[in-house]
Here is the input.
Amino acid sequence: MSVHPIRVLVSACLLGQPVRYDGQSKGMVSAWLSELGAEGRLLAFCPEVAGGLPTPRAPAERQGERVVTVSGQEVTAEFARGAELALALCQAEGIRFALLKEGSPSCGSSRIYNGRFAGVSVAGEGITTALLRRHGIAVFSEDQLPALASALAAS
Here is the structure.
């Protein structure tokens, strides 16, 4: 019986893909992630793009259960669709860990912007993070790489 390495769902922008709202990426955030990627253990995913939003797109923030753009357009349905697709992918692939972009209205794991488009973050989680956690998937941010490494090593 072969042992399959544990895979991790990762925000595509953290792996250098230009999918952020501004059409940019965050670049590869660590050499350790590069190593996991070379081992085929990372699965890149952007819930916002998967949910049907273009790149680039208007900045969006959570306002309670809703997600709206800076111009007031509601994009909650697209964010929810992307979250559902992320969950379905994790379930299909047996993924139990995710590394998602902190601050994002989709992916924030402990902080998100306050919904007033003033650059102020508050405690909270993004739409995708909340859904994944409700289904038992451990979500980490790029600020928690040592904790993710420990969780993977313990699995």
